[in-house]
Amino acid sequence: MIATLPLVSDLAPLVCGLLLGLTGAAKLLGRRTAQLAAGTVLVRVLGDGRRATLALRTVGGSELVLAAALLTVPATTAPGPAPALPGLATAALGLGFTAYLTYARATAPESSCGCSARAEGPIGVRSFTRAGLVVVGGLAAAGADTTWWSTLTGRPAASAVLLLAAAALLLSVSSDVDHLWLVPLRRAGLRLFGNPLPAAAGERVPVDATVQLLERSLAWETTRPAVRSALLDHWDDDGWRVLRYSGTYPDARGSRPVSVLFALDITADIVTAPNPAVRVCLVDEETEEILPPEALAPLPHRTPLPLAD
After folding, report:
1. Residue 309: band (very low, low, confident or very high) from pLDDT cuts 50, 70, 90
2. For range 85-101, the mean pLDDT
3. Which of 106, 124, 141, 225 could cysteine-pair with 13, CB 3.0–4.6 Å?
4. What is the β-pairing status of strands 290-291 and 254-265?
């Protein structure tokens, strides 16, 4: 274990550089940065969606600068603090992320993290874990004894194993890529082992079963870009189970906060209704106006949402 620590430090600049490069590019250059900034606590702090967007893009630019430094500044055994600066700056950035998450969690727990400029739910353990990994990775990078490219060529097998482990760890704490691996894994488990929440015909299913059914529907896939939270509320009404999420959608004024409501059959689950009818409704949180389905049409890379699928 002790012998592995120098390898971790030497490869930490590569791992941190790639991570910050991806998240920084998404913030600075992403098409949906303005839309996603509206779901963060930055709007409350800065008092304006444009300022929140500018702040998010500025952080993204800073991440790209750090990524470039981590990937290009060579480590050296010569005296002097210069080679350690990118790593120390990365650790400081991670501490800043942690402070931001703590404030957001305390003042606006329903807000989005915005850490990777992709759709995310409320701030949770995974967000704090990701920020903590940035701190640890930065400190490890500051202690590197040689360049990451020298380590790759000198110890290729051990480096490959460590990089695969680091990638798996980062994927496990990044909710914005769950659809690439976690959701398919859960679906495969359901096909192999069946629904863990079965219900007799005509009986109400647990809420978790309704959420599970929703998240594999066409309506959810189409509406997901507008959703900015995990499940906030639910109720049963006249044979339907209504699930409420917070969200935003773009209009002429910018990003508009809405409640996203889904209604599904109260007795349906993934076994009894694998292709459920889903009713979708957007309610403006400021005016309580019910918006037409066409309100989702401006979302990027999406077609207008049908009332049911």
Report:
1. very low
2. 94
3. 141
4. unpaired
Strands of the 233-237 sheet, one edge to the other: 233-237, 240-251, 254-265, 279-284, 290-291
* Nearby residues of 254 by Cβ (< 8 Å), 6 or more positions away: 34, 38, 49, 50
Closest CA to 229 of 108, 100, 68, 51: 108
DSSP bridge partners of 181: none
Q: What is the pLDDT of residue 191?
A: 64
Beta pairing class for 279-284 and 233-237: unpaired
Which residues on neighbouring strands pair with residue 233, listed in sequence order? Answer: 244
Cβ proximity of 243 and 220 under 8 Å: no
Q: Please, which residues have CB within 8 angstroms of residue 27's CB and are 6 or more apart in sequence? A: 33, 56, 57, 59, 60, 61, 63, 114, 116, 117
pLDDT top residue among 198 and 177: 177
**Alpha-carbon span 66 to 22, nearest angstrom:** 12
Strand segments (E) across 106-180: none
Q: Which pLDDT value is given to residue 18?
A: 93
Q: 164: part of which helix (H) or strand (E)?
A: helix 156-172
What is the rounded CA–CA span in Å between residue 220 and residue 305? 10
- Which among 113, 168, 173, 159 is positioned nearest to 13, based on CA atoms? 159
